[in-house]
Amino acid sequence: MPFTLYNAPQSTCSQRVRFVLHAKSLPFGEVKLNLLEGDQLKPDYLKLNPNGVVPTLDHDGAIVTDSTVITEYLDEVSPETSFTPEHPLARARMRALMHFFDEMPAPAVRVPTFNLAFLPSFQKMSREEFIAMAESKPLRREFMMKMGQTGFPQHEMDDALGRLRRTYERMDREIETSGGPWLQGKSITLADIAVMPALVRMDDLGFADWQDLPRVAAWFEAIRAEPAYGPTYYHGSLLSERFPHLREKASRTA
Ligand SMILES: N[C@@H](CCC(=O)N[C@@H](CS)C(=O)NCC(=O)O)C(=O)O
Questions:
Q1: Are 111 and 164 in contact (CB under 8 A)?
Q2: Cα of 212 from ligand 1 centre, angstroms
Q3: Which CATH number goes with the domain that contains 129?
Q4: Is residue 104 domain-shared with residue 72, that is, in the same domain?
Q5: What is the model's pTM?
């Protein structure tokens, strides 16, 4: 098996890559990291991914990091089932959308995720343990310190939800312009796969704020109906399946 994916079940970035591997029917081995236990910060893993985050792809011993980069890499080395448009302009637009998704929803989704799902674990730590854990993160030190052990304040939650709402509106315009059902028209591309985990996460947390955008609602149903979706989101991949207190929230807001 030439591919090994270092990843975590509930990690949104990992879910992008798992979806592409399954959609391409590429067999892969998995190393599952426990992010709350700090597996991503152990010296052996940092040698593979100095950012101390998942996912990391090992392709026959060659290491590729960063989820959007990995999905493009997989599309290049295994082009039989392609998620990249042929025309250079369409490719450029796909990449621009992927940059937008990395800039807007990907960071925004972390605020409700950390406040609602992970904060209780951080609150069990002493102040010293929390600071040591935050300082050990190459990429997310400042983010963790900003959140602290009391969580992000309401205005940060509101800002994040606003950025997510603008993402759904942008998706709606893209689908309208392309004629849908996907962001760039008739074929699903890496851009659809890049934004998928953000919507799945928000739905899981009980904040599916796109019901008044029927094109986005149809897009969401379409991506969930893709054959690669089920194996990507195996049981335990949703936060509500791992943290029981979230199930109560999701049912309250449904
Ligand atoms: N830009 C990176 C971001 C990766 C990332 O933030 N991964 C998160 C999970 S989705 C992580 O590993 N977090 C571990 C931590 O914060 O310590 C990518 O897309 O691969």
A1: no
A2: 31
A3: 1.20.1050.10
A4: no
A5: 0.96
